Fold:
Amino acid sequence: MEKNTAMVDSAMEKLLAATPDFPESVRKAMRYSLFAGGKRLRPTLVLEAAECCGLGAKKALKTAASLEMIHTYSLIHDDLPAMDDDDLRRGKPTNHKVFGEAMAILAGDGLLTKAFEAAAENAADLKLKGPAAAELVRLIAYGAGAEGMVGGQVADLAAEGMTKKLSKAAAAKMLEAVHRRKTGALIVASLDAGAVLAGASPAKREALRSYGESIGLAFQIADDVLDVVGDKKKMGKRGSDRDNDKLTYASLYGVDGARAKARSLVEMAHANLKSFGRKAAALHELADYIITRDK
Structure:
């Protein structure tokens, strides 16, 4: 991840270079959150999926940057007062605390649209045929949009305060539906994008998507647990789920039960990678990292 972070950061610097038509105020706000020290999980998944399917990681950098820009836009908007109302992200004041709400919204909008420009450039660089280039843009848009991440965020807002109103079975079903979209959809898109760039077979794409579905849900469960037991200084944010009466895996299953569910999902993720053999070593390690991280 450290190696990939350096490459992705360099690519993002080039993509966000100053131009006469790029307002410096919004460029500064975009860069503030983009380079605030994220884990770069999603771009790493793009690069590792591409390598699993036979494409060198450096040839997938613009798409890797694209997924990180979409992820960052979502965090900027999630932190807004109308959403999660957070004042800290990655140990720093959230974007709207520094630049104001209007500029934070525009910074998120700028990152989202720049992301599709970057992915399209990547397709052109690789001379992907029309259907493959269109599929790359489509799958990223689907993962980020109303049937993916955005839809998951809508469902998450609707679930606030619902913990005591539903049976445990109904709450569990709602919770999984929320996070397969809110967190999982963009993780699945990251892996699928790397596969499409590499011209992977339908079987390989499906295996990577299934892996992504498992680790995406495991990642969210780990986040829910860290919100309860994590070191807030290491995490760089205050735990807000309990304050907002959010339905989470930790509130539904307890910390130990949530951890057990995450471990089960990671085992499923490992099984999905069998057909890739040793090429998937990094993806196996990432699956384990997701539930052992402390921030």
Summary: The domain at 2-292 is CATH 1.10.600.10 (Farnesyl Diphosphate Synthase).
